[in-house]
Amino acid sequence: QKATNITWHDAIVTAEDREKLLNQKGCVIWFTGLSGSGKSTLATAVEQVLHQQQHHTYVLDGDNVRHGLNKNLGFSPEDREENIRRIGEVAKLFADAGTIVMTAFISPYRADRDQARELIAEGRFVEVFVDCPLEVCEERDTKGLYKNAPRWRD
C-alpha cells in the first residue's frame, strides 16, 4: 500500500441498518467463464428477476468497468489481477450497502477470485462458473477474440 497516513473511519449506520432498510441482505454473485460464455447475459437476467421481486441490485460488467474505473488496465496477468482486485473491492462496497451485486468477469485465476471472496462476509459470496463449451464461445465470438487467437488445437 502506497498511502501510509490514512485512518479507517467507522460508520454510524451499519451494514445491518442498511439491510433492514432495504429488507434484504447484500451479497455478491460472481459470474466467471470464457469470453462469450454468457456471463453478462445471465447476470442481467438474474438482475431483472430480482428487480421484479423488488430487490435492490446492480451488475458490474467486465467491459463496462473497463470503460471507467479500470480503463488504465490492459490484459497482462498483472493487469488482470489488479482488475479483479478492484472489482472485489467495489463489490464489497455494494454488498456492504445492502445491494445484491452480480459481477460478470472472465476472472481466469482462482487466486484472484479467492481474494475477492475473502473480502466478502461469510456466506455472502456465490461463484457461478458459466460452463460453456469452447466451440460455442468460438461460434459466438462476440468480441472477435477467438478468430484472432492462435490455433493451438486441431
TrEMBL record:
NCBIfam families: apsK, PRK03846.1. It catalyses: adenosine 5'-phosphosulfate + ATP = 3'-phosphoadenylyl sulfate + ADP + H(+). The keyword Transferase applies. Belongs to the APS kinase family. It is an enzyme of class 2 (transferase). This is Adenylyl-sulfate kinase. Residues 25-149 form the APS kinase domain. Keywords: ATP-binding, Kinase, Nucleotide-binding, Transferase. GO terms for biological process: sulfate assimilation.
